[in-house]
Amino acid sequence: MRKKIVAGNWKMNKTFQEADDLLFEIADELNEKGRGDVDVIVCPPSPYLEMSCDIAAENDFLVGAQNLSQWESGAYTGEISAAMLHSMGVTHCILGHSERRTYFGETDNAIAKKIDLALKNGIIPIYCCGEVLAERQQEKHYDVVRSQVSEALFHLGKEALQQIIVAYEPVWAIGTGVTASPEQAQEMHKFIRSLIADKFGNDIADDLVILYGGSCNAKNAAELFANSDVDGGLIGGAALKAQDFVAIVNSF
Ligand code: PEP
Questions:
Q1: Could you tell me the CA-to-CA distances from 158 to 54, 105, 128, 163, 190 in Å, in that order?
Q2: Which sequence positions are flagged as catalytic?
Q3: Is 215 touching ligand 1 by the criterion CB < 6 Å?
């Protein structure tokens, strides 16, 4: 039985006080509404990671970062290393998000280095992949995702791959209010699982958690999560409201 996971990507939102409030609201809402057997991960901006880890430790949710450095340590002003994150109690890190690929020029090669450093330092990567609209319209979406998955993950050994979470995030659905249909999500998740099965074997593919991301909200989460290869969600906008986020957690 695969894990079910709902992760919230806060992106560059919230002041310190607002973040503090939202963390406690999420904790209260989880206590009140429950979470079934779902692992909940909150990924706040990096200045709030320490506070988030403190609150999470008392409230049974996990904390992920939104990025980490492709370098191990040293003279890299402004960077945050995987070891630093681990030492604070951060357990997960979003890597390969389309916003980082687009606005920060992150290449598959740099993302692969980040994945390696995350794993070396005990951080579980949430590896994001997904096509832009033009690629889907030209029916290149399977090729794009095949290439992203193989470039970032195929150099790993079986043991390392077992640590990975994949998030399929069609770029045309991120922050747009346009969600992939349950059929589109299911067929791509199944495809990703088949890529992993071909390379690493059926057992490892069967255990791989694949999240859907892209305008997933409290209204559409249930029909997305009902698909056999959709193991949860990576949630952006709807993760900024505790009630919506916890409603998504309870959408299985
Ligand atoms: C995201 O950025 O990872 C995301 C899924 O955003 P949204 O839910 O806002 O589309």
A1: 33, 29, 19, 9, 19
A2: 97, 169
A3: yes
Pocket lining: 98 vs ligand 1, CB cutoff 6 Å: no
Q: Which residue has the tokens 């993302």?
A: 111
Backbone angles phi, psi at 35, to 5 degrees: -145, 10
Over residues 210-241, the pLDDT tens digits come to: 999 999 999 999 999 999 999 999 999 999 99
Q: Which atom of ligand 1 is nearest to the CA of 237?
A: 9
Tokens at 172, concatenated: 């045309």
Catalogue all structural domains in the chain, each as residue range(s) with its CATH number: 4-249 (3.20.20.70)
The CA distance from 63 to 239, in Å, is 13
Quote the tokens at residue 95.
């890597």
> Which atom of ligand 1 is found nearest the CA of 11?
2
**5: CB partners within 8 A, 6+ apart:** 38, 39, 40, 41, 165, 209, 211, 231, 232
Ligand 1 pocket, mutate which of 6, 9, 99, 212 (most atoms under 8 A from CB): 9
| C-alpha 40, offset from chain centre | 11
Atom of ligand 1 nearest to the CA of 97: 3
40: closest CA among 181, 176, 226, 239? 239
A 10 A CB-CB count for 175 gives: 13
- pLDDT by residue (tens digit) across 139-186? 999 999 999 999 999 999 999 999 999 999 999 999 999 999 999 999
